[in-house]
Amino acid sequence: MNDPLPQGAVIGILGGGQLGRMLSVAASRLGLRSHVYEPAAHPPAAHVADRLTTAPYDDADALRAFAESVDVITYEFENIPTAALDLLESLRPIRPNRRALAISQERIAEKDFLTGLGLTTAPYAAVTTMADLHQAIARIGTPAILKTCRLGYDGKGQARLRSPEDAEAALAAMGGADAVLEGFVNFSHEVSVIAARGLDGSVSCYDPGENVHRDGILHTTTLPARLTNAQRTDAVLLAARILNALDYVGVMGVELFVTPQGLLVNEIAPRVHNSGHWTQNGCAVDQFEQHIRAVAGWPLGDGARFADVVMENLIGDDVLRVPEIARERNAALHLYGKAEARPGRKMGHVNRIVPTKA
Ligand code: AMP
Predict the structure, then answer these.
(1) Which strand ranges, in their side-by-side order, compose the sheet holding 10-14?
(2) Do the beta carbons of residue 248 and residue 185 sit within 8 Å?
(3) CB 212 less than 6 A from any atom of ligand 1
């Protein structure tokens, strides 16, 4: 099972969004094929995948047929229903593994895991009831952020507490879901490390990028990030520690807060990550190829950065600027083929590169 997959082997990808699309492109560049499983019609990955299954995650027959048609299964998002994973895992290897998924799906499990490794996170406490929340505020203080434990992304399912008086409204915003109160971290900026681990246990991390969000959605990632040499080393070492502890195979995004006291881990994503899109034009082997290499049991590629890069997400109507961007020098466009530019929808991104001097 641990031999590298041969040419023509099939990578099964759960999720057909832009990440699934770019993973499919990377697979085909390596002479591999991809089979994408996606409930929604006309997903971005459909244009490039070798095969597409359109079926919901509770369709056991479709899941079984999908698994039997592929050599290994990976995914582009972490909220895959457990029953679907149980069925798929009985038929083919899932990489990255279930533990990585389980931990990243649940904020408290994630923070317990990270702090258990000796890494630092924001102070946190589990909250279900108003009494929990009052206790948590007494321990952590305000300002703080209440977040749902599950299914939160891009700043959704979150409520800020400026003072203890905001408690009631914040808890109401969770809609009855289990939540976690996090102390507000006074960070100077946010960075992320895109890290990869191969089936042979080798680890390769990309240079950390600096992220700027707008309206809760990633706006830009800039390389190099503002970090001291010591912080850059810390970032890479802590990412490697996370991957090793999980016996991880594939690419992971590790989001970090930079504070005067050091680096705090915000969250981990067991998949290729939006803040790693810069690698497409800044490295010989980008995060998508690296992930496919890892899950296919190939050696990891060279992720050294050869250019300064600013990645800008094209969200909603930003896509109207494509004709101008297409005329810019040193700007590499990556568009996802989505028909409708709804507000907040990721339509594409542009990597603007400045070659570094040798
Ligand atoms: P998350 O969904 O946890 O990644 O949070 C989305 C964004 O909210 C982060 O990228 C931060 O900008 C901000 N944020 C999240 N948690 C905290 C925190 N504990 N302290 C300060 N800002 C935070």
Answers:
(1) 51-53, 33-37, 10-14, 72-75
(2) no
(3) no
Quick check: CB of 355 below 6 Å from ligand 1? no
244 pLDDT higher than 60: yes
Cβ(182) – ligand 1 distance below 6 Å: yes
Are β-strands 124-127 and 179-183 bridged in parallel, bridged antiparallel, or unpaired? antiparallel
What's the average model confidence in pLDDT over 20-38? 98
110 Cβ inside 6 Å of ligand 1: no
* Ligand 1 lined by 152 (C-beta under 6 Å): yes
Q: What is the pLDDT of residue 124?
A: 98
Q: What local confidence, expressed as pLDDT, does residue 357 receive?
A: 64
Which residue in 9, 1, 8, 11 sits closest to 292, CA to CA?
A: 11
pLDDT at 151: 74
Each residue of 179-202: pLDDT tens digit? Answer: 999 999 999 999 999 999 999 999
pLDDT of residue 2: 73
Report all structural domains of the chain as residue ranges with CATH numbers, in order of start.
10-94 (3.40.50.20), 123-183 (3.30.1490.20), 189-355 (3.30.470.20)
- Taking CA atoms only, the protein residue closest to ligand 1 atom 1 is 155
The model's confidence at residue 216, banded by pLDDT at 50, 70 and 90, is confident
Q: Cβ–Cβ contacts within 10 Å for residue 37, how many?
A: 32
To the nearest 10°, the Cα dihedral for 215, 217, 219, 224? 120
Q: Whose CA is nearest to atom 19 of ligand 1?
A: 184
Does residue 190's CB lie within 6 angstroms of at least one atom of ligand 1?
yes
CB of 213 closer than 6 angstroms to any ligand 1 atom: yes
Q: Is the pTM of this model over 0.90?
A: yes
Ligand 1 centroid to Cα of residue 266, in Å, is 7
Closest Cα to residue 117, out of 230, 251, 202, 240?
240
Report how far residue 106's alpha carbon sits from residue 115's, in angstroms, rounded to the nearest whole number: 14
**Which of 79, 137, 145, 268 maximizes ligand 1 atoms within 8 Å of its Cβ, making it the mutation to test the pocket?**
145
Strands 51-53 and 144-148: unpaired
Tell which atom from ligand 1 comes closest to the C-alpha of 157.
2
